[in-house]
Structures are given as structure tokens and as C-alpha cells.
Design a protein that fits this description.
The protein has 14 helices and 14 strands. It has helices at 9-14, 34-52, 76-86, 105-116, 138-153, 205-215, 234-246, 261-269, 276-294, 314-321, 337-346, 350-353, 375-385, 387-396, and strands at 20-27, 58-63, 66-71, 92-101, 123-129, 164-170, 175-178, 182-183, 195-199, 219-226, 255-259, 300-301, 328-329, 399-401. It is elongated and about 85 Å long. The protein starts with 8 loop residues before the first helix and ends in a 7-residue tail after the last strand. It binds adenosine-5'-triphosphate and magnesium ion. The site of adenosine-5'-triphosphate has 20 residues, from helix 6 and strand 10. This is Probable tRNA sulfurtransferase.
Amino acid sequence: MSTLEAPSVAVREQSPVDGEPCALLKLGEVVLKGKNRELFEKRLADNVRAAVRPIAKVDVIRRHGVFIVRTKDAHVELVDRLVQRISDVMGIVWVHRAWRVGKDVESVERAALELMAGREGSFAVRSKRRDKRFPLTSTELDRQVGGRINDVYGNPVKLKNPDITVSIEIDRDEAFVFSGGVPGAGGLPVGMSGRGLVLMSGGIDSPVAAYRMMRRGLRVDYLHFSGMPFTGPESIYKAYALVRELDKYQGGSRLFVVPFGKAQQQIKSSGADRLAVIAQRRLMLRTGELLAHRMRGAALITGDALGQVSSQTLANITALDDAVEMPILRPLVGMDKTEIMDQARSIRTLSISELPDEDCCTMLAPRRAETRAKIDDLRQIEKRLDVNELAEQLVESIQEHRPVYGDS
Ligand code: ATP
Ligand code: MG
């Protein structure tokens, strides 16, 4: 939540701020240089505009290391909604609701006073000049504005660990004054690293895997295998709800659903036995690879974590990699279950993942699953099954959904 508080009406009447509220964004990955930086900023500006489109039409103004997001008829509540929404856009480390005011000491003071109105505790003013032609140095400006706040409200100045920090940034055409802010999602703007396909089970891990790859700039689509027609549609509802929640990080998400029950039955009757689970995962990957090619995706993403369950041993992971040529990204491979659950909680997918459903995989699970799958044995089974043909058929049976964040 924003720590910004709306200034009290009484003070606003006494000292109207001659500026407008706007959102000030601090960009991440500042080490990026040259062409990459340009790409980063262009993509990010597009992503910000798209994310807030249901709320307001905005201008995104690019300055050195920061973005300014302005909208017509801006008011504090509207900008707070923008700030909240923008905090989910990948590539931003801080989002502030700031007063955008004239580039003179008096305007800056008025905005600072408004931000401090009715607030108790010690404070410090911290100024930064992106335009060095400003007549006061940062320290002089800190002192001047701090002195004024202290005169008017009596809050004590405390430079180390103050309760409240009032930040001032002097820019090319204007000044920004703000206090507090919302941490951004960090990472790289979605779309900067290409496109991938997430194998989305409805469990806890795959949504977290999707989040982590989006955070590294990958635009993702989702592929879910349901046990239909032998199970109910519950797992599809779950996958849908998960993708809708994750859509807040990129927008325009697609969920592809494959009715997988019959294929599973075929695997079962092929005598795969202890290898059934791995054989089925290989079939999922093959189907995923075919689909990814069609949509120009360049990677598959799964929620595998080394050793988490018996199917996720190093030998089994090797057997899975063998099924496809496309790289399989496993962003959770080195994470503990508790770490994954913490992350799932913070991205709000955990409670959805924990809803009951009939996972398609349970249908196949033999009493003892193979932990050291032999690739030759798997190839034998797949030959009997004619997996390439089977994967083609599965892709043809796909249904596409478009879960949109904020829809219910
Ligand atoms: P998750 O919590 O993501 O379900 P898990 O710990 O249950 O993971 P497995 O069931 O072995 O692990 O699945 C490992 C990975 O395989 C999943 O993270 C997911 O990427 C993929 N996967 C498993 N089942 C499905 C499915 N029904 N549809 C799509 N992908 C799946
Ligand atoms: Mg699972």
C-alpha cells in the first residue's frame, strides 16, 4: 500500500499546490546501456500505458532513469490507483505519487508543506538535481525546505532514519515533490526477452515459474493439460483463474487447454508402468514444443524444482530434456518449497493453487514412480504410441482462452 496520505482539505485550501499529482517511476536494471537501454525504455513505456488503459489514458514521459506518468484531470485518488497498478509492471523499482510543480523554491515548498500536513514525527528533506542549473545546491534546498516545514508544523528534523522523508527532484522543466512510495516489481519489461510457453498445471509451482520468467522480460502464454473427458473441468477453472491473476504482469495472456485424458489412457495401456509419469510429461513437452513453434515461442517453462517430488530427479530431468529440442527453462530448479510458497503468496496465486481439483497426473501415478528413467525405455514406449502423431492430434484439439486481469 502507498504510504502517501492525501493532504487534509483544510491545508489544501490554505496553500493550494500550483501543480498536479503524477506518478514518478524509478526504472530498474540501470546497468543497461546503449541500444538495450533504448529497448528497455520503449518497451516499458508501452507496457505502462497498456497496464493502466482500463483506468486512464496517460502520457509517459521519459527522462534520465525515471518516467513521469501524467493524465488529464489528475487528482490524488486517480493517481493512487495508477501507482498501485503500475507497481505490477515489470522493470520498475519504485513508484511514487508526486506533486509536479514549477521549478522554483516557493512551489517546491508549498508542495512539501502539503505532503507534511497533519503528519507527526521526525523528517528529513532529500533533494536531487537532474538539472544542475538550479540556483540552489541540493544541500541548500534541503535546508531551506526543511526549515520551512519545521517553522510551520514544528516537526523535528532528523537526518538519520527519519520517520518521514520528503524527496525533491529538480528536473529539466519542472520539480517533483513526494514522500513514500510503492516498491515496484523490478526485473525487465515483459517482451524484452522474447516469448515462451509455460506448462501450467494448476499447482503451486508453475505460476511462480511463470512470474519469474515474466520478470526477466519473457512474454509468456500458458498450456494446461486437463484430464478431460475423464475428469471434471475444475483444473481448467483453476488454470484460468491463475492465468487471470498472472495477467496483471503482462496483459494479453493466452491459455491453451488440451483435453489429455485419452492420451493418458493410451500411455497407461502401452505398458509404460513405472515410466508412465515421465512418458506423459515428455508428451506434454512435445505438444508444448509444437504449439510454441506455431506462436513463435522460443522456450518452454516448467515449475520443476530439483528433488521436490520423485519425478524431479536429475535423471528424470535429463529424460525430459531429451524429448524436445527447444530449451526448457526451470526457474525454480534451485528453490525450496517454502521459498516457492512464499513467492506464490506474494503474487497472490497460492490460494488459487490450493483449491481442490482433480489433477490429471494423479490418474496415472503408479504406486512407485521411476526415479531413474532410462531414455531408451521411454523411446520404446513412445514408438509403440506413435507420439509424434499423438502430439499433433493434441495440438489440433487445443482450446484457447483469454483470461484478463480484473475480469471476473
Ligand atoms: P506444480 O505445482 O506446478 O503442479 P508439481 O510440484 O506438482 O508442480 P509436477 O506435477 O511433477 O510438479 O509437475 C512439474 C511441472 O510439470 C509443473 O510445474 C508444470 O510445469 C508441468 N505440469 C505438470 N502437470 C501439468 C498439467 N496438467 N498441465 C500443464 N503442465 C503440467
Ligand atoms: Mg502438479
